[in-house]
């Protein structure tokens, strides 16, 4: 059932775009907010508006909110290629393969980590929303590597806090186009949804604080292999920051990578891999660390770019 909302625009939203204001007021994505506006379900002081119009503090806002989409349900079935790296009573660490999402989302019809675990008889914590129980962090569907899932409620609570408080070691390797200058550096730039609302993210003034550290492992003729650590864990963070430096991950066509180079190296997704994950074990308080070798597609691309140098 749709939900009619009427309120005065708060002072803190003065000058914001209408789609941004709706997103912040009602927890919508920018894309969903744009759909509500396009349907004519938003009026300010009695007139319909466009998504790029600006709001004025104190204006009377009327919105007909659509009913929330029903949460997708995990499909319990084994995921080919998803290996168990470690398991005990509290946690399970997997080596996530390409094309697997952490948990089901609206619009995703492919395999998920949660579905794969349930489909092979593993149990996960019941904390969290129904479609992502046990999930304490995520990797993009086409980013491979180490990922931990909570099995106990204690593990869920403590690991969620550890990720939130930046007490987790997250190390990635990325093959990026060209040669970053300097070879070692930090990208401190806020990230939010891209104004186009097409599923991308971007460096946006007023976005969520995001910090990425990188160091060049090896520079090849056409690309550089980087070691990357994160202070924050925003969606697509490494991909967005590397693109902002004009050195997108090889194969990452969504963020401006060269399709010719990707084809030459045989890469059909972003060259990005979670090589190491470390944290204090939620039951023992001892530091544990897990690693993951490059999958075949990334290793083959690395071999080709090295041979060309």
Automatic annotation (TrEMBL):
Gene Ontology biological process: enzyme-directed rRNA pseudouridine synthesis
UniProt cross-references to CDD domains, sorted A to Z: PseudoU_synth_RluA_like, S4
Gene3D superfamilies reported in the protein's UniProt record: Pseudouridine synthase, RNA-binding S4 domain
Alphabetically ordered keywords of this record: Isomerase, RNA-binding
Domain annotation RNA-binding S4: ranges: 16-74
PROSITE patterns: PSI_RLU (PS01129), S4 (PS50889)
InterPro entries tied to this protein: PsdUridine_synth_cat_dom_sf, PsdUridine_synth_RluA-like_CS, PsdUridine_synth_RluC/D, PsdUridine_synth_RsuA/RluA, RluA_PseudoU_synthase, S4_RNA-bd, S4_RNA-bd_sf
GO molecular function: RNA binding; rRNA pseudouridine synthase activity
Any matching Pfam family: S4
UniProt-listed NCBIfam families: rluA_subfam
Membership in a protein family: Belongs to the pseudouridine synthase RluA family.
UniProt function note: Responsible for synthesis of pseudouridine from uracil.
Name of the protein this chain belongs to: Pseudouridine synthase
Organism field: Actinocorallia herbida
